[in-house]
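hey
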């Protein structure tokens, strides 16, 4: 028992220590990318709506910035996960809000839970997507009044802005590469390796 505890502590210290070993250049590009990505969405908000209620800059984009600019090698930070996770979750959140009565203790957990399942099924798991689904049911009346337009703007529009900035800033130095090509190539190999269902031959049918 003591051996297992000590081993667990060693692993924990290793993980925590490795997490802190981020080069200052990595920190610089992560911070700069997040500033430009979130800044572009905020600028769009100010340009189109001025001082009116915030619509474009939803909270889940801040969480996405941590992944797509600060943890670019993570499978959860890849373009498919960023865009797909937010869009799928937004669809789930809006649907829950439109189909069910506005009872917060029902719609909020249901939107979050179903968004997780939907992202898992579509292989677009992106943790901030849960917040996107939640915002669709607990957000302001302005957000709720958008209906399925919420999926296109602010969600899809904001995701594409974050992605475009990530594709630029995450590839400006040789030390950073985005998207993670090893993950995308693994996904392709995995799809090819899946066994295909063949139609039974004529001999099998006769037998």
């Amino acid at each position: 028992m003591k051996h297992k505890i000590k081993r667990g502590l060693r692993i924990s210290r290793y993980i925590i220590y490795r997490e802190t070993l981020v080069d200052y250049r990595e920190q610089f590009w992560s911070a700069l990318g997040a500033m430009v990505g979130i800044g572009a969405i905020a600028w769009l908000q100010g340009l189109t709506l001025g001082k009116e209620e915030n619509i474009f800059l939803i909270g889940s984009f801040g969480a996405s910035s941590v992944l797509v600019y600060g943890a670019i090698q993570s499978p959860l930070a890849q373009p498919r996960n960023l865009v797909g996770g937010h869009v799928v979750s937004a669809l789930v959140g809006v649907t829950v809000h439109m189909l069910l009565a506005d009872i917060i203790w029902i719609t909020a957990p249901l939107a979050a839970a179903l968004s997780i399942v939907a992202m898992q099924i579509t292989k677009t798991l992106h943790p901030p997507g849960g917040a996107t689904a939640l915002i669709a049911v607990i957000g302001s009346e302005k957000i709720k009044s958008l209906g399925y337009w919420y999926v296109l703007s602010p969600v899809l529009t904001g995701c594409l802005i974050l992605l475009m900035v990530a594709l630029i800033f995450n590839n400006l130095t040789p030390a950073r590469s985005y998207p993670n090509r090893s993950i995308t190539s693994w996904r392709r190999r995995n799809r090819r390796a899946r066994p295909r269902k063949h139609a039974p031959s004529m001999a099998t049918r006769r037998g």
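Residues 25-181 form one domain. The chain has a mean pLDDT of 85.
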